[in-house]
Specification:
The structure holds two protein chains of two kinds. Chain A is an all-alpha fold. In chain A, α1 runs antiparallel to α2 and α3 crosses α4. Chain B is mainly α. In chain B, α2 packs across α3. Classes of the chains: A mainly alpha, B mainly alpha. At the A-B interface, α1 and α3 of A face α2 and α3 of B.
Chain lengths: ~150, ~70
């Protein structure tokens, strides 16, 4: 059966193009943040181990990276919310819920396990990573399960 | 919720992408509604009904009799 292409097809292609541009811009911002923090890193600290005292970055680079983070993690997703349809908004809400629940559960569990001598002390980046990774995992799960 | 979206779309010889564009939603949303994985919001249900020039209850069936 052949289907008649009409104005709806063009609008759908436009929506897909916009989505690809969104993903491209997000990747660009993420890449820029990774490059700037990696290339201009002057200290011996590590975000992953919570070694904050030894972190060092040129002040100008720090400001640029901060702006990029606000753009990539706040402005872009907020804009994205205005562009997606109700189905994807639902997936996003499930992903945010997954991230939130993982964080409010993950931190106390981490703290208790630290108190028990099982793991290193909780640190801010670790808690951020729990939220971020949980959201990234929750989104595809929402798509599969729903 | 059961619906007649796939049949109505086929009657007009529209692809999912065509219907999605006319409803201003993603193709995935149309697919999710057709397969019963997603129940549309009331505003979207009204848009669907207007597009097919039908009443909402002639397209969607929640299985409850009046």
């Amino acid at each position: 059966m052949t289907q008649t292409p009409g104005p709806g097809e063009a609008r759908t292609r436009q929506r897909q193009r916009r989505q690809m541009i969104y993903v491209g811009v997000a990747a660009l911002i993420g890449g820029a943040i990774g490059f700037l923090t990696g290339f201009f890193d002057r200290g011996d600290g590590s975000l992953f181990t919570g070694d904050w005292e030894a972190l060092s970055l040129d002040p100008a680079i720090a400001v640029v990276v901060s702006i990029a983070i606000v753009a990539g993690l706040l402005a872009l997703p907020l804009y994205g919310f205005t562009q997606v349809d109700e189905l994807k908004r639902e997936y996003n809400l499930i992903a945010f819920t997954g991230g939130c629940l993982a964080t409010i559960t993950g931190f106390p569990v981490w703290a208790v396990l630290y108190a028990g001598g099982f793991v290193p002390a909780p640190h801010a980046f670790g808690v951020f990573a729990i939220a971020f990774v949980s959201m990234m995992v929750s989104y595809p799960i929402a798509r599969i399960v729903r | 919720m059961k619906n007649r979206l796939k049949v109505l779309r086929a009657e007009r010889d529209w692809s999912q992408a065509e219907l999605a564009g006319r409803l201003d939603v993603s193709r995935q949303a149309v697919n999710a509604i057709e397969t019963g994985k997603h129940d549309p919001s009331l505003p979207l249900a009204f848009r669907i009904a207007r597009l097919f020039e039908m009443r909402i209850e002639d397209i969607f069936d929640d299985g409850e009799s009046v």
